[in-house]
Structures are given as C-alpha cells and as structure tokens.
Amino acid sequence: MLSLVIALLFFSFSNATMDPDSVYQSFLQCLPSESPDSAEDLSELIYSPTVNSSSYTAVLQAYIKNQRFNNTATPKPSVIITPTTESQVQAAVLCATKLGVQIKIRSGGHDYEGISYTSSDPDFIILDMFNFRQIDVNIADETAVVGAGALLGELYYRIYEKSKVHGFPAGVCPTVGAGGHISGAGYGTLLRKYGLTVDHVIDARIVDAKGQVLDRKSMGEDLFWAICGGGGGSFGVILSYTVKLVPVPEVNTVFRLKRMVAEKAPELVHKWQMVMPNIDHDLYIRILLQPVTVNKEKTGRATFIAHFLGDSDRLVALMNENFPELGLRKEDCFEVSYIQSILFWDNLDYNTTAPEILLDRHSDTVKFGKRKSDYVQTPIAESGMKLIFNKLAELGKISLVFNSYGGIMNEIPADSTPFPHRAGNIFKIQYSVNWNDADPELETKYLNQSLVLHDFMTPYVSKNPRGAYLNYRDLDIGVMTGDNYCEGEVYGLMYFMGNFERLVKVKTAVDPDNLFRNEQSIPTLAGKNSGESRKTMM
Fold first, then answer.
1. What is the pLDDT of residues 238-252, one digit of tens each?
2. Which one of the listed residues 112, 117, 469, 472 is annotated catalytic?
C-alpha cells in the first residue's frame, strides 16, 4: 500500500511543481520504508518551511557562507534532511529517486556560487552532511578517516592532538567542509611540497545512485579516481575519505611582507613568478595584489605571505640566494609550530589564540563575495604586471591572489586525478571581491568588476581552453540545464581539460539517470546526444 501511495505521489509530482508540504509528507512516508530507523526518529531529521519553519531556517542558514545566496529571492529547498547514519543517507537517496526531486549535497557550505544549497531546479532538497564530522586519526599508520561534514579546522586540530609533526595538505580556511574541499582537489600551503588533498586519498565511502554504500574496492578504481578531484556531487554522496598524513617539521617559518607599487611591487611580483617554480619545495609564497589609496591617490600593493617547512636561518639564506630583491630579513620571520602556522594563515594571533578555535565551526565572518580563477603558464612581463596593478587601482575594490606552483606539482601526471593543472602552470590566480552591504547596486558593481578584470587578464593566462579551478566555483563560465553535454563541456574542459571525457564515462556508468546533478555537474553520454539534438534543432 505504501509503495502505491509513493508511486501515485511521484506521478503527480512529475507533472507539476511540488508543494513543499507534500514533499515533506512524502519523505515522512518514504524514509521508514527504506531505513531500519523508526518513523519517529527519522522525522527529527527532516526540516520543512511549512511544518517546522524556524528550525528549517536555522538549519538552512547555519552553513550559508556567502550572503549573496541568503535573501528572500534565493531558491529554497522543499526540505532539508540531516542524516546521522549511512543507512539514512541511503534512504534519502532512494526516496529522492522515487519522488523525482533533485538532491543538493552540502558539507560545509563554502561553495562560492551556493550550488550546494540553492538550485535552478524548482524542486530540490538539501542533504546536509554536517552530522558526518567524525575524524579518526591513526598516527601509527599515518592516516585519518575524515567525515564529509568535518571542517578543515577540526581535521587540523585532531591531527595536532595526536602529533605535532604530522599535517595534511589542505586549505587555509578552517571552516571549509572536508567533503567538498577534498572532492574538488583542495590545496594549501603544502602544495609545492606534497601536492593536493586528492594526492593523499587512499580510500573513500560513498552512497551511489542505487543507494549502495561503496568503498574503494567495491566502487572500483574509475569511480574512486573520479571522486578524487572531479567533485563528489556528480557521482554520489561522499560519506568519508581516508587520507594519508604527511610529515611536517617541529619548526616552521612564516612571514608577511607588504610592498607598494612605489616600492617596485610589479617588479617583485615579476621576479617571484620566475623564482618559485624551481625553488626549494619546502617554500610556498602567496601574493595578494590589492588596490589601496595613499595620500588620496589610488595605487596598488603586493603582500607576500609565506610558509616554509624549516627554520628562519635556512629560509633567509634561501631567499637571499634566489630572491634577494624582496629584502627578507630574519626579523621579518616568525618561527612557529605547524598548528601555529595554520592560525597565522587564518589571520589569527598565534601567540594569544588557542588552537581550540579550530573546533569552532562558525569562527568565520560571512560576507557577500565572488570568486573566479585562472592559470598562468607563460611569465607575465614587468610591463604587464604594471598594467595589472593599474587596472586594480582603476577598478578600486577587487583583488587578485597569486598562488605559487612548481615543486612536486611538476612531477605528478595531469591524469593521475581529475585535476589537470600540474606541470606547465607557473601559478594560479584567484579573483576575489568581498563586501558587507546588501545593496543590490553594490553587488552589480562588484560582480561587474570581476567580469571586467577577468576579461582584462585574457592575454596573460592559459588558453585553448582557458583553465579554471573547480573549488573556485564560477557560474560565469557556463552552466548546464538538465543533462546537456554541450553545455557541460564548456566549463568541464576548463576545470578538467583532458580528463573531462573520462569523467563523463564514469558518470554515465554510475549515474546514467543523472540523479546527482547541479549547475556545473558532469553530464552523461546520453546528455551528449541530447545536446547535439538541441543544437541541430536550433
């Protein structure tokens, strides 16, 4: 009888936009049929805007990390499901399939375009994985099992609890969710020494479109490869990753040096790009290029931020030999532990801030923002650097972040993971603009600045195709409606280059009905036929 009710509901839903209350009631009926848990227990995991609206709003907003997608016009899910067990995730996937609703999967909410909790599809639910935040660190075999809903700060702290000489090569923002970060090939200050997050994943657990829980052995190497850099949201629900930890020294050194255009910032940035690809792998230097006003005059500033796996004496000697123009002195350097370096990179006072702050899941300030990305493969001339600083000053708000490559990234094949941007890339660019005011005119202004600057940078960045970084999600470069290969190929080639076709084949094999989809997911081969048909009709 229950299956008949669900079938009738699906028939009616497939012919009309769903009423949120009906979706809620349908999940209440369906979940117990697919889960060993009681209906009463399962009901506590489901939030609806019509039934428990205050709790629904609190849960929805708890992990919205971009205020651009937190207003009355933002599309809202029909329900939010917050599973605590693997069987509940399985049940949610099976019921979403039966009811014909789109699943959006959220681990930490840092997706820059909000596609883990908004949708262009009128009927969608959020599967919010924040309860899957268990972290099991095993120093004896140098591994950690990391729940998809764990945050990077929690991972760093749990490693620190067990060892002061182990780390993991992931991002510098502690409130980023591990599931999305790892599946999209996250990186951090250990990039040049150890590569990306996905270069150290040795196992994973995932719920696929059939509701099966799979590990690396049972899912097979193709699917395992795909979820290690291809984004988990196209292939299933990531439950956890097992990662290999890396050694870090007891003494690390950090510095932050600022140089104005009048202090030869363009020349220094030019030299940085020449030095970093082949310098000691223990050194990582990021540069922030920002517009500033000095004496009422618009100009530019470069901030060099470094993490060195070693003491300050060795770092200063290294810099004097390879990059003396920067003028690094020993007094500019701060010797810190590895956990203190994480606090430093999060702009915290590592002397007065206890590492326990990394356990605070909401320690960040949520602003309005926009990100874009690029890769540079040919050194930019000094004249070009000067023009870039001039453009930043002209625009007045948006900034650029240059992230050094080289090191071990030059040694890892481009097809070892879906992330292809390895050898041949000198540095990665992040376009970054944040603001605090909800004024729509400001949003229009700053989003336009990102477009203008991205267009301005065209002569300096990679081409055919122009590269982009999945974890700096950017819907400006293309979106896919439904399952359309031609649309998906546009952004797919930018994110994945020559690995895109293999991702399509994996997607087709494991999720042929395209249950796991979003505005920039991987299309199926069936979508290729669909896209070509549409193109012919047009």
1. 999 999 999 999 999
2. 472
